[in-house]
Amino acid sequence: MPERLASQIAGLSLLELDALRELANVGAGHAATALSRMTARRVAVTVPTVAVASAAAVAELLLAGPEPAVAVALTAQGSFAARFVVALTDRHARGLADLLLGGGDAGAPPHLAESALQETGNVLAGAFLAAMSSITGWCIPFSPPLLVRVADSAGAALVTEPGCALCLETSFSVDGGPPVRGHLLLFPRHDTVTGLRARIAEWRLGN
Q1: pLDDT at 190 over 50
Q2: What is the CA radius of gyration of the chain?
Q3: pTM of the shown model
Q4: Averaged pLDDT for residues 153-160
Q5: Residue 187 vs residues 58, 75, 79, 135, 160: alpha-carbon distances, Å
Q6: Which CATH number applies to 2-205: 3.40.50.880, 3.40.109.10, 3.40.1550.10, 3.90.550.10?
Q7: Domain-by-domain residue ranges, the chain?
């Protein structure tokens, strides 16, 4: 199954990847609105690129830096079964939490920072999956967020899945400040990709 899944994802056309980027930008807009309301600050979320990478390449990405990555993982169920991960370097994760919480120079307390990151993952997943539901008609429930510090291969294995992932580069900025960058990683499961490709094709024909 992982080989078949990898083949399906790697076979996405440029038009399909472009449609997924459009979809991600719609979700990012919804997420920015939700985070702005939640924090009473002006939050911008953009998704400039969408690419495909193997699970091994994703694990390498998570472990590449000198500091542990921070990942918020959720599991989508129903017609769109997938692992959804928001991944940032530790420095960027702390920076994003401080921006969202207004922690100032001292920074937000660790427990509040972790809670803010989990809620950010929850909002991003909800916004992206809601955008996907709008074009597919699927009901896509998802699990509560799990925060993982990825310091070694065991940590990477907790948030990745076999096969390939859709990698969406993501940028956050608060009140017009410098951006904080990370990645949204989507690991679809089983026949999810087949159904999604068909729905994307129908959506593209209608637009």
Answers
A1: yes
A2: 16
A3: 0.82
A4: 88
A5: 10, 9, 14, 19, 7
A6: 3.40.1550.10
A7: 2-205
